[in-house]
Amino acid sequence: MDPLSHAAPAAVIRPGSRTGRAPGPASLARCAGTAGPPTVRGMSSPKTPPRPGPDRKRHALRRLAEDIDIWVATTSADGVPCMVPLSFLWHEGTIWMCTRPGNPTAANLRSTGRAVLSLDGTRDVVLIEADGEVVPVDAMSPAEAGAFAERLWDVRGSDAWVALRCVPRTVRAWREENELAGRRLMRDGAWLV
């Protein structure tokens, strides 16, 4: 028998506490400022019906407008994968990011022209397959560069950065198993909903 399987819960002693007992669910809820269990962003209960396509599209577009970071997966010409988080700007249907010219993400995008991008969260998935290219930061339009500077940082006039321009070809969005059907919102660059 594993002696740890019958171990008593560890005592939690907070400053000012008069006992060494572990807090119960009610006191944990009061401490957390919530009356129920913790929630995960985007997580739906098993009874929540799947969202219709237009709602998923609105949600995906809102996340693209509001989120700051995105996971970027690329592969080299010989198939070596690379995945990194980068800050991004969603501007007029294009995802803009910047990185150092010699970083693997830039090298991979130069050689393959493809990337898979994902907004954070496994219970609120927005997964994007995109055509991409590496461009000098000075090749960004004044509107794009200005929006990037306002949201993230100003890269204009710098040789230390290159811009990554990714145009979505496929967008899929879902939260739970009940939303797997109908998760494809865009195909071949055209919205389906």
TrEMBL record:
UniProt cross-references to Pfam families, sorted A to Z: PNPOx_N
Region described as Disordered: 1-57
Domain Pyridoxamine 5'-phosphate oxidase N-terminal: 70-145
Full protein name: Pyridoxamine 5'-phosphate oxidase N-terminal domain-containing protein
